[in-house]
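Standup notes
- DV: blocked on the single-chain target, sequence here:
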Amino acid sequence: MLSTYIESFVKCLYPAYLKEYYIHIPKKKKHLFPEPPSQIPLEYGTEIYQAWIKSDSRGGSYIGRFPEWFKEHCSDLEEAGEVIITVDKQKKRYRLEIPKK
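- DV (later): unblocked, structure below
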């Protein structure tokens, strides 16, 4: 029987992230994502965005290049100050949620 590998984590959204339209991937969670540079589908509700996993200058990674999502949900993101990222590594599915405050 195959087991599904699903993990969720909360990531704070600092003002620079909102301004530059990206989400930093913590080093401890980097293993959940494909090696950069890679394109991934990011689900938010019924919407699907094509985002990129990119390397940063300090050896870390971030999810970026989907500014339309940030622009559409700017007020919710500013109010919440964080996102929940759920990864189903087996199915290669990545989902975003904005927690309600």
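- Follow-up: The chain has one domain: 6-95.
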